């Protein structure tokens, strides 16, 4: 492995909202899903080939419209500028006290192209400097960090790090998009955000506790013993529009509505299963799917929800069904049906279950469990693909539409989740190319990753490998 | 002196000539003599009367809202930076809680860093941001151009540059080569009124002239980076701000002017060692420069005010108050009666009061000393709350408040009281020249409807 590329974090400051929150000091409780996610952190990095900020003077970055638009936008997100406090029962809640968001500034000793070719996952961690809450003490700890890292030759990476307790990757992506829209002077469709879930309509549930697959899965998960930590490695595979189109076309007969997520999940799942030695004798395999739940909740404009709205569900398949030539198609179909079958009731009962069964005798929630893992988990960001208004066929992603005033699309966007242990994590995210192209970030135990990067089936799809370290 | 004597002589010559002429013509010689005497006196008076100095308009700086410092941010930064000195941090918290500042006071960008690491470039950037924005507003409001400016005075106590700040302004606005520029440094929070005094004297000498006075304090280079308790107070109070004032003696602008200058009274207690040493810039044991504020500050301020108003009172108080004061003085000093010192009721002399927003304690102390009502000090309190202690420019935010509230009427008198290191107490009295409509632009313009607000004794997060 090559020596790490030097990232020098040279400044730390606080960005405040421009308008005080009214009423000041109001506290906001967290939902059961929020609390369940507490052990993880999320890191999203937007890479731009040229910095959208002027380079005159030390504060050019600060005094530009960029900071003004950020401060103005933060006025609508008191959940981001507030601080965590404990409520009467000892559980976390957010206090809207306008303390602000921590910002870091760094310089990187290489160009952005070199970085994307040769940097690895631990290098990327330097672009989103993150510290967990020190000793459980939330005072002086900013739950959200933004890092601006300048590359040699003018590139810029904007990294968002935050605790999963307060937001999911979708929330942060939409916040970021609102920022770039505001800086360009355009109105944003995702702002002002809805902070926290509205009360859920429970009346449609039957009185007998509906043990859906989700709740059963969570029950099992909470009983799992912690796995021994192995060294994990991460690689990013970029699949082009053409290749994915071809693949989807090939299976179109059997599974007409398959999405790129369905296809890639099935593909990676099967290939990883082949690599994993431990599963050789087990007849059933399962994967955990993390799907966005915004549309299933009673939120008037789902994409405005800022918080956690995820569903974790388990999909199992029998080895014998996916043996043979049609194995992949079968798997794709399974995934597709599973994803489409997630209904509002499932989400509601999940929330109810999280609410009731995690509470201890004294009303305090225990320390959060690991939600991403320990079994193999796959995260979908398909909901961030939006059809373009002027063209029915072309689909653009919100992620790559995040352009500042200079109208430059990000050249790459990385999604990472912190504290992922166990079997591994697959995040299937949009690509700069748009359409059905996808960027797949895979985290696996190091030896399995080495084998995956040479897997013939995957290599057949001609992925471009980036951010995977020197190979 | 010679000029004065010449003018008197000329008046008398003319008067005598007329006198002789009219006497020969008139049937009532004594009446004519008497009338001519009156006319002579009147002409003499008008010829030698000092020119009226008018305040055409003024502008105050409104910082960008991203520079604001919410309570929680201030507390948090303090906690992180003073982590090694918990006692200093606790002291700072106590000050913050009782300071009387609100959530929207502003600090320059350099001081939002943890830890702050300000340099000369940052200080210049703050200076340019504050001064240029304010002077731009002033030119827009008055309709004047930079070429119309004859005198330029800039006062900024703790940031000294070469070329001077006044040169910076001349360079930016391409002012005329014969502009008379002055740069006052080191004169503390009352420097704004000292600049007004200087402008007044210059405008008395130079006829038909316009003068700009720029009052500001640049915070960037003056944040105290150490942990010494007695030096932490300024960090908690001083905030970004600035004002630009246009003064003139031009007759053509007299109708447009908002105020006319009535009196300037300056008192300096520097001869007294205690007064001299109560606000002192020094270095702490680690070499960090800061300003130490003595515990006697309130008392010294009150005493300097007493001295100032004893002179000002004789100029502005109505006869009734003067009489009461004299009677009380006689009773106490000569008749040796045990009576409390009579504080003249300055509310009979002035309609509006602007007390330097040095801190909550200062305003409270002055309110008590002068027997002022809460309404009288509302402008001072609200300025401290919204803008913090902006040093020499705070008095202008206060007048701005009164105007924004629509309370300034023609003929009303405003008293500005400034305090500064040294120890100085300066008073300036203005008379409102015309009815002033609520300004549509300015620092208070979009926010005045929220004020006044209730400020708690102690702010608890």
Automatic annotation (TrEMBL), chain A:
Keywords, comma-separated and alphabetical: Transferase
Pfam family, one: Transferase
SUPFAM superfamilies: CoA-dependent acyltransferases
Keyword Transferase part of the UniProt annotation: yes
GO MF, any single term: acyltransferase activity, transferring groups other than amino-acyl groups
Membership in a protein family: Belongs to the plant acyltransferase family.
Name of the molecule in the record: HXXXD-type acyl-transferase family protein
Species for this entry: Artemisia annua
Lineage, broadest ranks: Eukaryota, Viridiplantae, Streptophyta, Embryophyta, Tracheophyta
From TrEMBL, chain B:
EC number: 2.3.1.-
Membrane spanning residue stretches: 27-47
Domain Beta-ketoacyl-[acyl-carrier-protein] synthase III C-terminal: 350-431
GO biological process, one term: fatty acid biosynthetic process
Domain FAE: 46-333
Gene Ontology CC terms, in alphabetical order: membrane
Pathway: Lipid metabolism; fatty acid biosynthesis
GO MF annotation list: fatty acid elongase activity
Localization: Membrane
Family that this chain belongs to: Belongs to the thiolase-like superfamily. Chalcone/stilbene synthases family.
Protein name: 3-ketoacyl-CoA synthase
Organism: Artemisia annua
Classification of source organism: Eukaryota, Viridiplantae, Streptophyta, Embryophyta, Tracheophyta
